[in-house]
Specification:
The protein has 151 residues and is mainly β. It has a domain at 32-135: Carboxypeptidase-like, regulatory domain (Immunoglobulin-like, Sandwich), CATH 2.60.40. The chain contains one helix and eight strands. Strands 1, 2, 5 and 8 form a four-stranded mixed sheet that branches. The chain has a four-stranded antiparallel sheet with strand order 4-3-6-7, with no helix packed on it. The protein is globular and about 40 Å long.
């Protein structure tokens, strides 16, 4: 009898530990996001399709969240943090390119280190301006990890 009570107690504790203010997927939303979308360009031309990650530059305690987006062929994107297209936390980010192409299998082009700011109120006019590193705009080039910041 005592063993049954212990097993039920453990099951109840495990069940209740999943509750507590998270979203539908169980993630706790620790950072407030704002709607954020815009256009990605490479050497002054719309660029895509590609996946981008925005890594926060200024850490806000444990509330650091990466924003991400799949960029369309015309360079347009909508950022998401917890879910697809749910926005991003206001702040400054470093832009990181992921795989590109229709099947996202091609390597990204080599670009200069780029930063972008998501304003406090969000918006749909965020511009991410990429510049080729070493004059290389080919999709077959590899991302150079020792890049200089774009001006």
């Amino acid at each position: 009898m005592l063993r049954s009570v212990n097993v039920l107690t453990v099951i109840l504790m495990l069940t209740l530990s999943g509750c507590g203010g998270g979203d539908a997927s169980g993630d706790k939303r620790t950072v407030k996001t704002v709607p954020a979308s815009g256009v990605l360009t490479l050497d002054d031309k719309p660029f895509g399709p590609i996946h981008i990650d925005l890594l926060p530059i200024q850490k806000q305690g444990d509330n650091v969240r990466t924003a991400k987006a799949n960029v369309n062929a015309d360079g347009t994107f909508v950022l998401g943090t917890y879910e697809e297209e749910d926005g991003a936390a206001p702040g400054n980010y470093r832009v990181v390119l992921g795989n590109m192409g229709e099947n996202f299998m091609d390597p990204p082009p080599a670009v200069q280190d780029t930063q972008v700011m998501v304003p406090e109120g969000g918006g749909d006019s965020i511009k991410i301006v990429l510049k080729s590193a070493k004059g290389d705009t080919g999709a077959g080039s590899l991302l150079d990890m020792n890049l200089k910041k774009a001006k």
